[in-house]
Amino acid sequence: MPRSNHYTGVADDSDAPAVQPVQAGMLLVNLGTPTAPTAAAVRPYLAEFLADPRVIDYPRWRWWPILHGVILRLRPKRSAHAYTRIWDERGSPLRYGSEALAAGLQAELDKQQPGTLRVALAMRYGEPSVAHAIEQLQREGVRRLLVLPLYPQYSATSTGSVIDAVADAFKRLRWPPELRFINDYHDDPGHIGALATSIERWRAAHGSGEKLLLSFHGIPERYVALGDPYAEQCRRTAQLLRERLRLGEDQLLVSFQSRVGRERWLQPYTDATVRRLAAEGVRRLDVACPGFAVDCLETLEEIAMQNRDFFTAAGGETLRYIPALNDAAEQVASLAALVRRHLGGWPEAAA
Ligand SMILES: C=CC1=C(C)c2cc3[nH]c(cc4nc(cc5[nH]c(cc1n2)c(C)c5CCC(=O)O)C(CCC(=O)O)=C4C)c(C)c3C=C
Ligand SMILES: [Fe+2]
Ligand SMILES: [Fe+2]
């Protein structure tokens, strides 16, 4: 006999005994990824992503015919091919990497204070949706919710869109939980320390290239002109890392990747930068992507494969990609500390 949840009215038809309610919850949110590396699976994913007005802000009457008439006919096939290059027996790296990070964070927080904070994972596009994850947390008795989008730098196109999804989910709840948001952690000393440690460890094991390029996901320049703090936060992260790693301006460079469409995006572009460096005589280039908490298509395919090929075709010898923090102990520890700090004043979950 299905029990009806008294907060949401959502039927809960599991026969599992009610567990001890954990009153504080946190939701990690990442971008989302297709369910399979096929055009048929990539199409609905791109349709949801590219219909988000936070991502593409053209008026609907202008954008819809282009999206449905051109983009969704051509891009799914091309993207699916890129996804086949990074897909493995565990599925999409963005998905299993995010799941591993969520599990690591739950274990770390439980070690500090058993059973006080429930960690859930949602995807902004696709499943598990933000609304679904919040309903599930409420069913488990969560009355206070902390949301951590897995984007160290705030952008309206990424973090802002997660805020929209949470707001939409809350509209459907009769008694939503108390809510907090971590809008960004681009200059969090624990996070910068985790990045620096992981880059130093990687370079100690593999040797250092002549230069280190930090490649961030781009956004249209127009969004920055309209007040998006993203570019400034990327540059700040890079500056703090440069200081921690004791590198000069000529040894640590910044660029922006993953441009889509015809508008001008943040400069300099990553592809142009790796070609320029090769042409200038750089033989061995290391690239890290500190804007990505977890490895994904944009790091494993675009950087570690496409841009590696651009670099060698332009005369470079090796481009080596330094992996994202993923579920490494440093990232688990720095995010656990960040989360604990944001729980201050919530009696059942404070450190
Ligand atoms: C078209 C506009 C896009 C904006 C603006 C944008 C901003 C943005 N994206 C990320 C993080 C990720 N993006 C990923 C893939 C991806 N991004 C876009 C477009 C925009 N992103 C597309 C169309 C795609 C899909 C793949 C493709 O067809 O090329 C991913 C990886 C997803 C995966 O499955 O692995 C991430 C992560 C940020 C942080 C951001 C703004 C700062
Ligand atoms: Fe993107
Ligand atoms: Fe891309």
UniProtKB/TrEMBL annotation:
<dbReference type="InterPro" id="IPR001015">
    <property type="entry name" value="Ferrochelatase"/>
</dbReference>
<comment type="pathway">
    <text>Porphyrin-containing compound metabolism; protoheme biosynthesis; protoheme from protoporphyrin-IX: step 1/1.</text>
</comment>
<keyword id="KW-0963">Cytoplasm</keyword>
<keyword id="KW-0408">Iron</keyword>
<comment type="function">
    <text>Catalyzes the ferrous insertion into protoporphyrin IX.</text>
</comment>
<dbReference type="Pfam" id="PF00762">
    <property type="entry name" value="Ferrochelatase"/>
</dbReference>
<keyword id="KW-0479">Metal-binding</keyword>
<comment type="similarity">
    <text>Belongs to the ferrochelatase family.</text>
</comment>
<dbReference type="InterPro" id="IPR033659">
    <property type="entry name" value="Ferrochelatase_N"/>
</dbReference>
<dbReference type="GO" id="GO:0004325">
    <property type="term" value="F:ferrochelatase activity"/>
</dbReference>
<keyword id="KW-0350">Heme biosynthesis</keyword>
<protein>
    <recommendedName>
        <fullName>Ferrochelatase</fullName>
        <ecNumber>4.98.1.1</ecNumber>
    </recommendedName>
</protein>
<dbReference type="InterPro" id="IPR019772">
    <property type="entry name" value="Ferrochelatase_AS"/>
</dbReference>
<dbReference type="GO" id="GO:0005737">
    <property type="term" value="C:cytoplasm"/>
</dbReference>
<keyword id="KW-0456">Lyase</keyword>
<feature type="binding site">
    <location>
        <position position="298"/>
    </location>
    <ligand>
        <name>Fe(2+)</name>
    </ligand>
</feature>
<dbReference type="GO" id="GO:0006783">
    <property type="term" value="P:heme biosynthetic process"/>
</dbReference>
<dbReference type="GO" id="GO:0046872">
    <property type="term" value="F:metal ion binding"/>
</dbReference>
<keyword id="KW-0627">Porphyrin biosynthesis</keyword>
<feature type="binding site">
    <location>
        <position position="217"/>
    </location>
    <ligand>
        <name>Fe(2+)</name>
    </ligand>
</feature>
<dbReference type="InterPro" id="IPR033644">
    <property type="entry name" value="Ferrochelatase_C"/>
</dbReference>
